[in-house]
Amino acid sequence: MKKINFAFGIHCHQPVGNFDFVFDEAYHKAYQPFLDVAGWSGYGRIIPGTSGS
User: Fold this and answer.
1) Cα–Cα distance between 12 and 23 in angstroms, integer?
2) Per-residue pLDDT for the chain (53 aa), expressed as one digit of tens each?
3) Which of 9, 36, 38, 39 has the maximal Cβ count within 10 Å?
4) Which residue, 29, 2, 45, is CA-closest to 12?
């Protein structure tokens, strides 16, 4: 079977001026668990991007 390269891009946005505690909660509840699992999957590269705060 022919090998293909796969890159998975995700984008996480927090509005500029958002409260620090809101960003912290979003990171710990959503971003970190996703990256922990996806980073160890071995299925391809992950390209995280962030914008905003």
Assistant:
1) 11
2) 888 877 777 787 888 888 889 888 988 998 888 888 877 666 667 777 777 65
3) 38
4) 29
